[in-house]
Amino acid sequence: MAYTTLTLKNNKTGETRRAPVGFSWTALCFFFCPAIYRRDWKSFILMFPLCVLTLGLANIVFFFIYNKLYLKRLLSQGYRITVHGSGQVNQSHL
Questions:
Q1: Radius of gyration of the chain (CA)
Q2: H/E stretch holding 71
Q3: 4, 10, 51, 93: least buried by Cβ within 10 Å?
Q4: Which residue, among 17, 21, 22, 13, has the nearest Cα to 82 in the 3D structure?
Q5: Per-domain residue ranges for the chain?
Q6: What is the dihedral of CA 29, 22, 91, 79, to 10 degrees?
Q7: Is the confidence at residue 23, as pLDDT, over 80?
Q8: Are 56 and 38 in contact (CB under 8 A)?
Q9: What value, to the nearest 5°, has the Cα angle with vertex 35 and ends 74 and 12?
Q10: How many Å separate Cα 42 from the centre of its chain?
Q11: Model pTM?
Q12: Cα–Cα nearest to 6, from 83, 74, 69, 88
């Protein structure tokens, strides 16, 4: 499980997505399946061949970076972080 989860909303489409922050345990255990579940096709196209060619060793790298890649991709597609309750989110560190 990731450290925490952010809720993001696309103001143009009204679609809401949740993005985990931290290590991706699901990517480590289930290889490229989290990318399919999240409809993150660009990451799937990157992860699938690398996992096959390296016999799963590439997942050690994706374990550390997949959630950050997913969050950056959502932000580049126009999603914005919605903050519930008190607290601040600094998007410059993402």
A1: 14
A2: helix 59-76
A3: 93
A4: 17
A5: 4-86
A6: 30
A7: yes
A8: no
A9: 25
A10: 11
A11: 0.82
A12: 83
Task: Kindly list the distances between the CA atom of residue 42 and the CA atoms of 37, 46, 61, 85, in Å, as whole numbers in the listed order.
Answer: 13, 6, 16, 32
pLDDT cut 70: percent of the chain above it: 86
Look at phi and psi of residue 75 and say left if phi exceeds 0, alpha if psi is from -120 to 50, else beta: alpha
As a whole number of angstroms, the distance between CA 85 and CA 45 comes to 36
C-alpha neighbours within 13 Å on the C-beta side of residue 77: 17
Angstrom distance (rounded) from CA 32 to CA 20: 16
Rounded distance between C-alpha atoms, residue 20 and residue 17, angstroms:
10
Higher pLDDT, 94 or 74: 74
Hey, how many other C-beta atoms are within 10 angstroms of the C-beta on 79?
Answer: 22
